[in-house]
Structure formats: structure tokens, C-alpha cells
């Protein structure tokens, strides 16, 4: 088929479903990268950290592949109304996932920058943040693909648990730095790692907002509805 031909509706639907499937593959790649990055930091495994850091290129390539296929459909098939909204939403979620992948890369960079330096405290709450955030992400992607606005509305409420853990990590490390200024360097790195995971949960909220808009047409900023502040992004630490 020539690119300037309009494909039959059933073929277009198959292409759309394939894009959703590829988005789930990207989501799985990102989930694995974050989980392994945190585990590598916990175990101080620099070899794994380097592998994940370098492997971020695969996530980037997958993101651009999905983006290109979306743009081809938009340019050649001239989708209308809901179809166009779905393609635009896929592009948006695609970008959010790539950015979450950057958080995994950022945590690996922290690990590598620490080198042989021991952690200033055992990692307990940071892995919990990762588990909660990744569970939110997994369900948010499922809600997006299935078009479940109710689930998408509910998931961001769980962000409070991630925020609580982040605040605990931040306050504990700040207290330790006041007591022993020699650990400031290492403590700051752990704060940055925790902040990346806190931002991961915020990006899950963005995915949920896109799902709600896709299904209902409502534009709702769920973070602002909860009174959550906008924080700076430390993915590129």
C-alpha cells in the first residue's frame, strides 16, 4: 500500500492497537530500568549501573520509533476527532515514559558518581518509593490502554504515600548532615535519587490526566486538585 492511500478502518484500528502494544513494551522497559537502577544503588553494583545507564539509549530509540509511527498515521490517514485525540495521547504518554527512563539513568549516574564510596545510610525508604511508583505506573498504563477513567482518577491519590516516603528520606538525611557535615556529599546524592522517584510518581499522574481527558474530554490537573507543589526535575543530575 502506498503511504498516500487511506487504509481501511479495520487496518487503521490494527495499527492503533499496535501502537498501544508498543507503548506497553516501552513501559515495561522503563519499569525494569528503574527497578534495576534502584537495586544496583542499594547493592552498590557499578557494573549493573553502567549497563542500565548505557541502555537508556534503547529506551530513547523505542520512544522515537513510537513517535515516528504515530506521526506517519497522523500525516497519511488524516484521523478525525477521537482517533486524533488517541494518537496525540499516545505521543504524550510516550514522552512521559521516556522521561521516567531518564530517572533510572539519573539514579545510575548517582551510583557511578559515588563510585566506591559507601552509602551514608542503608536504603529502605528509597526502594519502597520505587515499588510504589512502579506499581502506580503499571496500573496507569493499563488504564490508559483500556480507557478506564475511573482507575486513572484514583491512582494519583496514592502519590501521597510516595511523597511521605520522600519527605522522610529528605528529613532523615538532612538531620544526618547537620550532625555530621562530612557526609553532605553522599547524602545529597541520595536525596537526588529519592527526588527522581518522587518525580516518577508525578509523571504517572500526568499519564492519568491524559487518560481522563482521552475518555471524558475533561482537562483536570490532579496534582493541583490535591494542592501539590510543582517541584524541579533532577533527572539529569
Q: Can you characterise this structure?
A:
The chain is 79% helix and 0% strand. With 237 residues, the protein is an all-alpha fold. The protein has one domain (9-225): Methane Monooxygenase Hydroxylase, Chain G, domain 1, CATH 1.20.58. Helix 1 (9-43) packs antiparallel against helix 4 (125-146), helix 2 (46-77) packs antiparallel against helix 3 (81-114) and helix 4 (125-146) runs parallel beside helix 7 (184-216). The radius of gyration is 20 Å and the shape is elongated. The mean pLDDT is 90.
CATH superfamily: Phosphate transport system protein phou homolog 2, domain 2
Oligomer kind: single chain
**What gyration radius follows from the Cα positions, in whole Å?**
20 Å
Percentage beta strand: under 5%
Percentage of residues assigned to helices: over 70%
Distance between the termini: 46 Å
Total strands: the figure is: 0
Structural class based on helices, strands and sheet pairing: mainly alpha
Q: What is the domain tally?
A: 1
- CATH architecture term: Up-down Bundle
N-to-C order of helices and strands: HHHHHHHH
The number of helical elements comes to: 8
Give the CATH level 1 class.
Mainly Alpha
Amino acid at each position: 500500500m502506498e503511504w498516500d492511500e487511506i487504509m481501511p478502518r479495520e487496518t487503521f484500528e490494527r495499527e492503533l492497537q499496535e501502537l498501544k502494544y508498543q507503548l506497553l513494551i516501552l513501559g515495561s522497559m522503563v519499569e525494569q530500568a528503574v527497578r534495576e537502577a534502584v537495586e544496583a544503588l542499594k547493592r552498590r553494583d557499578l557494573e549493573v549501573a553502567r549497563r542500565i545507564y548505557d541502555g537508556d539509549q534503547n529506551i530513547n530509540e523505542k520512544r522515537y520509533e513510537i513517535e515516528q509511527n504515530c506521526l506517519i498515521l497522523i500525516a497519511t490517514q488524516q484521523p478525525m476527532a477521537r482517533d486524533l485525540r488517541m494518537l496525540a495521547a499516545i505521543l504524550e504518554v510516550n514522552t512521559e515514559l521516556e522521561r521516567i527512563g531518564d530517572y533510572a539513568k539519573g539514579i545510575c549516574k548517582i551510583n557511578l558518581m559515588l563510585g566506591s564510596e559507601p552509602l551514608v545510610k542503608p536504603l529502605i525508604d528509597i526502594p519502597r518509593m520505587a515499588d510504589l511508583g512502579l506499581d502506580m505506573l503499571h496500573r496507569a498504563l493499563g488504564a490508559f490502554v483500556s480507557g478506564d477513567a475511573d482507575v486513572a482518577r484514583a491512582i494519583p491519590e496514592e502519590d501521597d504515600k510516595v511523597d511521605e516516603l520522600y519527605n522522610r528520606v529528605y528529613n532523615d538525611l538532612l538531620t544526618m548532615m547537620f550532625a555530621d557535615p562530612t557526609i553532605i556529599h553522599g547524602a545529597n546524592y541520595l536525596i537526588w535519587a529519592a527526588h527522581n522517584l518522587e518525580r516518577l510518581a508525578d509523571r504517572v499522574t500526568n499519564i492519568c490526566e491524559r487518560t481522563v481527558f482521552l475518555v471524558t474530554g475533561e482537562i483536570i490537573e490532579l496534582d493541583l486538585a490535591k494542592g501539590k507543589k510543582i517541584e524541579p526535575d533532577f533527572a539529569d543530575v
